[in-house]
Amino acid sequence: MYRTYIPNQHGAWAMLAVPFLMGGFAARFVPLHALLFIVWLLAYLFVYVLLQWIRTGKGKRYRNPAIVYGASLLLSGTALLVLHSASARMAPLFLPLLLVNAYYAKRNRERALVNDIAAIVQFCLIAFVSYELGGVRDWSQALELFVFCVLYFAGTALYVKTMIRERKNPAYYRISAVYHLVFLAVASSRYSPLFLIPITVLFIRALWSPRTTLTIKQSGMLEVAYSVLIVISAWMAYT
Known about the structure:
Largest sheet: none
Strand content: under 5%
């Protein structure tokens, strides 16, 4: 029962929180951000259950969680739209990305890199919503936040593959290493110097960790620490 309601995708929790927090830090947090996060969390839980239903075809198992999360999302989402209708501005961008996820779920290929990127872009779109909710209209800065989050999580997706499914694939290792080097170069020219510390750590991680005997659990725990480091850097850079 517990596993039916609670996702076991540990990396998704970081993707849920980091773009949301970065958008809030860059603009300013307001009380309505609490409601936005509830809506955002419920949207993730509802979509997770829906995709598991599509993947497994087990409607009996996932029907109740879908109803609970769907109804809660409808109520909280309606409240948010009444209080801040502009929050729905990015909603049309989620649908085609969700269809990509549904396609791969139906074929039980959720670990495909294309599916990962589609999910990453979806998660990172919340940076725009969180940013706008703070009352700021500098969309160039919002775009920079979005791009940063996409680059960060896309690099993490590549790195995770070098630690699990592609651990013995030298091509993936090289791609991951080069990607993180390019990310570091882009960040050094476009973002606050405060971000260089965590991105350098991520680059070292991409080079070093696949050559170690780190377990999946240990690697996952370290990813939490890296995400916290990113959030702290964003807080210092934008406040």
